[in-house]
Amino acid sequence: MGHLITLATCSLNQWALDFQGNLERILASIAIAKERGATLRVGPELEIPGYGCLDHFLEGDTVLHSWEVLAKILVSDEAMGIVCDIGMPIVHKNVIYNCRVIIHDRRILLIRPKMWLANDGNYRELRYFTPWMKHRQWEDHYLPRIIQAVTKQTKVPFGDAVISTSDTCFGVELCEELFTPASPHILMGLDGVEIFTNSSGSHHELRKLYTRVELIKEATLKLGGIYLYANQQGCDGDRLYYDGCAMIAVNGRIIAQGSQFSLNDVEVVSATIDIEDVRAHRAKSSRSMQAASAERYHRIEVPFALSRGKFDDITGEDSASLSGNNSIDVRFHSPEEEIALGPACWLWDYLRRSRTQGYFVPLSGGIDSCATAVIVYSMSRLVTEAAKRGDQMVIADARRIAGEPEDSTYIPIDPREFTGRIFHTCYMGTENSSAETRKRAKQLSFAIGSYHTDLNMDSVVTAVRNLFGFVTGIRPQFRSHGGTNAENLALQNIQARLRMVLAYMFAQLLPFVRGRSGGLLVLGSANVDESLRGYLTKYDCSSADINPIGGISKTDLKKFIAYAEHAFDLPILASFLDAVPTAELEPMTENYVQSDEADMGMTYDELSVFGRLRKVQKYGPYSTFTKLVHEWGSFLSPLQIAEKVKLFYFEHARNRHKMTTLTPAYHAESYSPDDNRFDLRPFLYPSRFPWQFKKIDEVAAVLPDRSIQSGSVDKAKTE
């Protein structure tokens, strides 16, 4: 045992522009780190203003208030005697940078700007920030007077440098820089940096955590070193949920891991490490040869050590990591658990920060609105679990949301009881609705405890239909009653849109009916595949305040419901899995029952395939066809594949305009068609794609049909 260093990283539930709240959470994390004996604390990316400020980063006020918060951190007792790595935007020579500020005992040691910016998918960092392009170079940054008054410094180093203490050397790697092929930790490590800090604003996406963990492990597996990963956690104001999971890795092994989903505003992960383990790991000839020729980083020398002495006491909690070969089993949630936890935490943050009184959702008796309702119930379960642990912040928020007086002693301990206070459901039936869906909706509401209403809206639909007939002299009919396709579609749409109007009326007035003040947020329940296909009515119940399942596929939602049936003890969910998905907007006859997949002309599984090829693989219609000829050619002919591909791209293109009004949804899927920031495309297309479709037809006509090699059983999978 040589030089023991206790290090801390954290996940903070920061909120964009909540400077006061963000300051309190930062100080709380520093205090916890110090209590555990840590001498270095790392926080999330841009933790002072919050990562999700978006265009507010371009405002001088955001930078000014960030400096003001940093001044308060510098003068605080919490920040004395510990090195803190803190994130904020900084203007250097009239250029805005995404920076880490390294402080110690009321002095700034280094300002390290981000060099490789995240600028795809959900991220647009180049819109606000400029990357630091002078690698391994630094220059003077002149501090604002508010900071000079505290630190007694006029200027500090700004750039790509590292900190050299009397016992080790540490450097900064910022979020996206870990994901780049030539990550900074490689050259820093070869130049003798032993501790790497990574401050991230990384959002949750189903099945994504594994990639992040592997990159963190790989960063020090060959190189050797200590890697401290910090991340934001929670909803900071938009569609993303940052999924925490702060970690500490040593020589390619994860030795400490925080929670991925939590209602905690502050979570600190710490470990005590023997720095000699890093030096032993690096004692390899090939590594030494590369290190000997490595380019030099400027070292900012400081007269203190991170280790406290060879024989100082350490806590039992942190001592477990001292073994040279020790590691933990990284906790990965299944996709079903991720759906149960991620959107639920996002909903809780949105509810408490919007200061509304609960949620409202129209229950159709189908699996999508069912999934939305079960996620709200999962949120209630998390709230009651936190309340039982004595989480005072959760208890205070729950009391306020539930309408309790200020002197109330109410503590939510039963998820059904709490759900009944904050969640309202309604079945809006018509003459086209079935007794089965009405019954399922009622039974589900009872199982989870929601405040449920049940109504028939035929009189409202008939009034609108009669009004049209009075004005035009024509009363539209359903197709089954002899009407045209245009009439049939219009009659379906008016039912769907009236449900949206009624949903907002009930959301606004149900608290009043129950003797409470305030209003409810309306939840949407359109899944990612229906949005991709455009299988929804514009301004129907897909139009809501927020949508917890809008970024989740139908396939994953079914698996989630199957999981929740047992995990949440909700046997009623089995009946939703067995039911055929249907909009119930057309009259049922002896020969016809409306079915979603029949209406769409493709299955939900096929939609998921098309979605990933279109967005993730970046394929157009022709590339999609050529890819699927290989993947589906054993059970579909080239001509059948061509028709499916053309149908998907035609329907996606002609319905793309619906994405411009899509309800803000929890981002969970890599092929989301969200038009706001993630999937930027036109909404007026040449939807018949004459050039592309002609090429597909020409190739399909001459390709051999290999589908006959498989049996009819295989064909049935898609047909």
Explained architecture:
The radius of gyration is 29 Å and the shape is globular. The chain is of the alpha/beta class. It is built from 26 helices and 20 strands. Strands 1, 2, 3, 4, 5, 8, 9, 10, 11, 12, 13, 14, 15 and 16 form a 14-stranded mixed β-sheet that branches.
Structural key phrases:
single chain; 719 residues; alpha/beta; 14-stranded mixed beta sheet; four-stranded parallel beta sheet; globular; disordered C terminus
Mean pLDDT: 93
Per DSSP E runs of 2 or more residues, the count of β-strands stands at: 20
N- to C-terminal separation?
A: 66 Å
Q: Which structural category do the helix and sheet elements fall into?
A: alpha/beta
In DSSP terms (H or I, runs of 4 or more residues), the helix count works out at 26
**Low-pLDDT sequence parts:** 710-719
Determine the oligomeric state from the structure. Answer: single chain
* Silhouette: globular
**Helix percent band:** 40-55%
Percentage of β-strand residues: 15-25%
Q: Tell me the radius of gyration.
A: 29 Å
Give the biggest sheet.
14 strands, mixed
